[in-house]
Amino acid sequence: MSLHSNLHAEPWLISLDSGSATPVYVQVAQGIKERIRTGLLQSGTALPAERELAQALGVSRVTVRGALALLAEQGLLTRRHGSGTFVAPVQSDIPARPLGILSSFSDDVRSRGQHPGAKVLHFEKARPQPSEALSLELTPHDQIYRIQRLRTANGEPLALEESTLPADLVGALRPSDVRDASLYALLSARGLRPHHAVRHLRAVNADLTLAGLLGVPVGAALIMTERVSWTPQGQAIEYARAHYRGDKYDFVMELHGEDTSA
After folding, report:
1. What is the four-CA torsion angle of 147, 179, 193, 96, rounded to 10 degrees?
2. Of 41, 59, 162, 209, which has the fewest CB atoms closer than 10 Å, so is most exposed?
3. Percent helix, strand and coil across the chain, each rounded to 5?
4. Is the pLDDT of residue 37 over 80?
5. Residue at which a domain ends, from 87, 118, 150
6. Spatial distance between the Cα atoms of 104 and 17, rounded to a whole number of angstroms
7. Are β-strands 116-126 and 144-153 bridged in parallel, bridged antiparallel, or unpaired?
8. Strand pairing report for 96-98 and 250-252
9. Inside any domain, residue 158
């Protein structure tokens, strides 16, 4: 069946074959994928609402929903809660963080030609929780700064970061000190730049709170990291947890084979 778009938009003039063994939703996904590949649908392009797209294609909304879900699974589309469905950035647009290099979020984003931002969601000076005290080698009577920030690139949310810092080591700190600023740069200015760290990564799904903050659907794939960093003198300076958008951020690891020549 041929399509005459009610949207009067060339990208949606997709030819569908009702007699094909290929499910219609897959045909729709293939048609949209081809338009993304050829540049007819560019990064950031907003797709019509499901109802409008179904009407334009002459198919059901269930068919359209299946096609969009398939493309989202392949990383070609991204869904923003309350905003709609968009063509995802090409891989080169996604900041890649080398796993073997200890660098700040701000440095990573700037290396991609983007402007980093940090919105402070929570800031407090308090006693450490058991996990924080253990990671930072503190006693239950010490004090820490607990900071939660929404990290952005060119104003778009990329990650939710939670950092715990030993108050006695860091010195006086205010919320304004970490707003739209690199935490590593601040620590460096105080002679406390992290020198080495241990980081754990795992895949998680966005719950309602994370989805709302990061602008992704509930259940969207996220990369969760947990890290402890030390100064050159061996002082634990930061215990950090972060949730990165899986569609906007990736980590790169360089691997080497074992030397078996000996």
Report:
1. 90
2. 209
3. 30, 30, 40
4. no
5. 87
6. 50
7. antiparallel
8. parallel
9. yes
